[in-house]
Amino acid sequence: GAMLLGIGKGTKLLTKYLESEKRYRASILIGASSESGDLELPITLSENTFTHTPEKLTSIFEELSKGFTQELPALNAAKQNGKSAYSLVREGKPTEKRFIETRLLEWKILNEELLRSAELQQLLELKATNISNALEKFSLIGEQIGYHSRKYLFMKEKWLGSLASSIETVVSAKDRSYLLLDCEVLVPKGTYIRSLAQDIASRMGSIGILAGLERMNAGNR
């Protein structure tokens, strides 16, 4: 992804860029969902089939570019009674639904791939390997610079546990189809790409989850 750094007087400009639009490359899986909106928590599978055509997807993106109301994911940073929503969810406490008005400023569909259960299983196994390697690397770097890196090992175990549960769900379900959609979008500040996955999926008569995300840039079209 892209990380903004401010040096010297340049730090004064950070707020400007943080308030601006952001460009993302996202992988969206149609036919599955989770409470977190991504693969951090175990997935559930849709009981319904969905209709997919390139023309249908194009019309959905065109509709979203005109403006829409987006519901924030349950795990978000919005404050409620002094606590973030994601903290309350993890404590098992109820949260208020939050909505924003947003739109796609720019969009591009990069790839559409129909997956069967075995292929989705392989995708989840690859995610587990990549996440494990990345968090082990973060932990090693943390030890080298004297930073408490135990949290990365905790995150690793949590992610791997969720992905293992998701793989079991896929394997135990009857063979079904999923759509893996890769796209690039430019969105205003405050837009949640995890929710965008559901926004797209709901218009296809299904559920959706964010399977991968990369921030390309911020504040620069």
Shape: globular
CA-CA gap between termini: 16 Å
User: Percent of residues in beta strands?
Assistant: 25-35%
Q: Largest beta sheet: what is the strand line-up?
A: 8-9-1-10
Count of helical regions: 6
Tell me the number of strands. Answer: 10
Q: What is the ordering of alpha helices and beta strands?
A: HEEEHEEEHEEHHEHE
The secondary structure category is: alpha+beta
| Rg on CA atoms, Å | 18 Å
Helix share bin: 25-40%
Poorly predicted ranges (pLDDT <50, ≥5 residues)?
Answer: none
Quote the average pLDDT. Answer: 87
The largest sheet, given as strand count, sense and whether it forms a barrel, is: 4 strands, antiparallel
What would you note in describing this structure?
- The protein is an alpha+beta fold and 221 residues long.
- It has six helices and ten strands.
- Strands 8-9-1-10 form a four-stranded antiparallel beta sheet.
- The relative contact order is 0.30.
- The model has no long low-confidence stretch (mean pLDDT 87).
List keywords for this structure.
alpha+beta; 221 residues; 4-stranded antiparallel sheet; 25% strand; two-stranded antiparallel ribbon; 38% helix
Topology (SSEs and partners):
Layout: H1 14-18, E1 22-30, E2 32-33, E3 44-45, H2 54-65, E4 68-71, E5 79-80, E6 83-84, H3 85-90, E7 99-102, E8 106-115, H4 117-144, H5 150-172, E9 178-187, H6 193-202, E10 208-218
Antiparallel strand pairs: 1-9, 1-10, 2-3, 4-7, 5-6, 8-9
Helix pairs in contact: 4-5
Describe the structure concisely.
The chain has 221 residues and is α+β, with helices and mostly antiparallel strands. The protein contains 6 helices and 10 strands, in the order αβββαβββαββααβαβ. Helix 4 packs antiparallel against helix 5.
